[in-house]
Specification:
Layout: H1 4-10, H2 24-38, H3 42-58, H4 63-79, H5 83-99, H6 113-120
Helix pairs in contact: 1-2, 2-3, 2-4, 3-4, 4-5, 5-6
């Protein structure tokens, strides 16, 4: 399962007519990974999410893309009941959001990763 944004990204024609807050190819891969997980394709899901994180890290100036990819990777870890990975990714998201002053956590009651992990158990 691959999306049009990924083919567009790989074509080398990445000039967008609008300024993006997030990298469209990263969002596409994140949604593909979540869809693949829900369809039972765990290996493909992990592969798509790893690619999303890798591309987000290469697009250094688009920190929200990396935050989005890490956040959703944490969602997958939570679905898989992987407490340590969920904690690690939650910490990364909080650290990136704080360092770059993202409003990703604004308006939400912030729980510590440890509290979230306790709820998984």
């Amino acid at each position: 399962m691959r999306c049009v944004a990924l083919r567009w990204w790989r074509s080398g024609n990445q000039q967008s007519p609008v300024e993006e807050v997030d990298a469209p190819v990263v969002s596409c891969l994140v949604h593909a990974a979540l869809s693949e997980w829900h369809l039972g394709n765990m290996t493909s899901s992990r592969s798509s999410m790893a690619e999303a994180i890798s591309l987000a890290k290469k697009a250094e100036l688009i920190w929200p893309a990396l935050t989005n990819a890490l956040f959703n990777s944490g969602i997958l870890a939570h679905f898989e009941r992987n407490v340590l990975e969920t904690e690690r990714l939650a910490s990364e998201v909080i650290e990136l959001s704080t360092r770059h002053n993202f409003p990703i956590l604004a308006g939400h009651r912030i729980h510590t990763p440890r509290l979230g992990a306790q709820r998984l158990r």
